[in-house]
Amino acid sequence: MNKTNFKYWQGYIGILIFVIFNTIAMLLYPGGTILDSNSEGYLFFYNYFSNLGEWIARNGEINTVSAYLFNSSLIIFAISYFSFFISFIKLELKAIKSKSLNAVLVLSIIISLLSFVFIAVFSAEGGSIFFHMFFVKLAFRSLFIHSVAQTYVVFKIPEFDKFLSFASLGFTTILLLFLIIMDFGPSPHASQNSLLIQVTSQKVMVASIMIYFFFQIRTALRVS
């Protein structure tokens, strides 16, 4: 990889760190879900990502290492994506002259990334749960606004391949479905099946963010 394109390909490092840190955090998580404090270890389809960031696991045991890994991964990924986006938007500015559209792109992603950082600051436990949920909702709602604007821009730029255009559209659709499930789906506290639906939708959403970011990096490296 060209060292001068580090501003783009460092994003691969951000993705890799997020995956590695969270994999280790899952392996070290003591146990417990929001419905079953007696479960052992991290249950992929019943434990939220945010459970990893709680300093006390749901089974009452200390969760310091997993919490540090999860919270650090969020902050590192947010910094990585923001560093990427500063350069990526310059590619878009060459083709899109709308100041209002550019403002929407920049402000929405800044709000989203800062919210993800605050998700790490306010864990989903005790007195911080209100702020945690506030920033979770703010992060994904502002990301949706950004994604809609981003999809429009990508379709307008001929230098960007069609694959990225449809990847943007697909990502926006998945994000919309996730918001619908999060806001109007069954309460995760209602039953194990309800928890399964909510946790699975979150896992799909996070995986989609990683995959979409990967293809954004690939496109940026190709056209830069």
Show the helix and strand layout.
Layout: H1 6-28, H2 49-52, H3 64-93, H4 99-121, H5 129-156, H6 162-184, H7 192-223
Overview of the molecule:
This protein has 224 residues and is mainly alpha-helical. The protein has one domain. 73% of the residues lie in helices and 0% in strands. It contains 7 helices and no strands. The protein has helices at 6-28, 49-52, 64-93, 99-121, 129-156, 162-184, 192-223. Helix 3 (64-93) runs antiparallel to helix 4 and helix 3 (64-93) crosses helix 7. The longest helix is centred in the C-terminal third of the chain and has 32 residues, at 192-223. It is globular and about 55 Å long.
Number of helices: 7
- Total strands: 0
How widely separated are the two ends? 12 Å
The low-confidence parts are: none
Structural class: mainly alpha
Listing every helix as H and every strand as E from the N terminus to the C terminus, the arrangement reads: HHHHHHH
The percent of residues in helical segments reads over 70%
Instruction: Give the total of domains.
Output: 1
Rounded to an integer in angstroms, the radius of gyration calculated over CA atoms is 18 Å
Strand content: under 5%
Biggest β-sheet strands, sense, barrel = none
Shape assignment: globular
Task: Indicate the mean pLDDT.
Answer: 92
Name the descriptors:
single chain; 224 residues; mainly alpha; 7 helices
Characterize this entry briefly:
With 224 residues, the chain is mainly α.
